[in-house]
# Entry
Amino acid sequence: MSGVLFGLGLGPGDPDLVTIKAATIMREIPVIAYVTPVRSGKPCTSFARSIAEPYLIGEKEEITIAIEMLDDPTRGRQVYDEVSDKISYYLDSGRNVAVLCEGDPLLYGSFMYILDRIKDSYKVLTVPGVSSLSAAAAAANLPLVTRHQTISLIPATLSESKIRTCLLKGDSIAILKLGKNIVKIKKILSDLGRSYDAVYVERASMMNQKILSLSDAPDNAPYFSIILLTCAETE
Amino acid sequence: MSGVLFGLGLGPGDPDLVTIKAATIMREIPVIAYVTPVRSGKPCTSFARSIAEPYLIGEKEEITIAIEMLDDPTRGRQVYDEVSDKISYYLDSGRNVAVLCEGDPLLYGSFMYILDRIKDSYKVLTVPGVSSLSAAAAAANLPLVTRHQTISLIPATLSESKIRTCLLKGDSIAILKLGKNIVKIKKILSDLGRSYDAVYVERASMMNQKILSLSDAPDNAPYFSIILLTCAETE
# Structure
């Protein structure tokens, strides 16, 4: 009988924000796979594996997903094809495999590329995780959205005109994938007169978490940072 | 020294989707507070407390937040004022208090009404939880959003014209707070020719979870249901 593929959401960074379910699966699973970012040809620490570390009991087979931090879909496709082949090999041998995912696997997560390749041939169980959005709001004690309001998540990688359009129409907004794009976002929010209600949260839930006003935010924000513009009504 | 108020996200329903952090706090906390919905004058089971049940070890003081299922902000204000007074009493005596919250406390959660009343006088720590959005996507193995896409969460309680506008502009959409409003949503999606790509998920992560096409969804959906319209690109 074939093994099962688990997509495990591990939350925003604090290992205590792993769910009981993900922790239990990690203790028992024989094979784990996780992204190892590659920068300038060198593999970096896997953030997902570092969150999982306290729960990885005993010997595991490990599959690394070495992804160059370039926006090159062709290379990405090749890596996910190869990784999916490796995962299929273990599933065929009857062993279960867990893909370790930062945050929630299906919200801007790369797990979907493996899911897409595996789901028609094997059983896949996705375990949802705490998102960086929820963690950022919790860090700042900032209600995201309430009652009859909407909230939109937008990536800072979008064009200036698209971001402007999103900002003009929504109720609450969360801007993700900041990096160097934060400079563009600062300019847009300043133009729209909305800098004052923007809160910048960096590495929510981690030891080096920071909560800053937008003017104090760096011009090259880490990937694990988020800008919140919320307008929740309390009663 | 005053106690600390914890806003504990308990996830979408499966007690195994509680985080290690929330479970640890619940084992030790002396006082818990939770919403008990009141229908036709009768208190119903607290969903939050039922998720927490396996983790409530030993004697606890319990504060119920009895909320009539009517959209009456005045009555809501009075209940939250009274509950916040009770919580303050315990905090003043040096005891920690946890508000048990379904899903994530700050995403359409009523915790914000207590947070708003308490945060200027006491220390508040919010523990983020797995949202029903992430749980619905996981149940259906459906990528929510990827790369340069946006996702908007919209409550079905909005007016038909507002919902139509949201649906015309966004990439991925999740529609929450369905109830009887699902009839309106079905009509709008049918008019816009988008019924075919809508997935209905009821009670994600629970024993009685259902994943249905929109045409098979009931006309009076439970509160814990969600419609997903996603357009994630895989590579």
Observations:
- Residues 4-127 of chain A form a domain with the Cobalt-precorrin-4 Transmethylase; domain 1 fold (CATH 3.40.1010.10).
- The two ends of chain A are 55 Å apart (CA to CA).
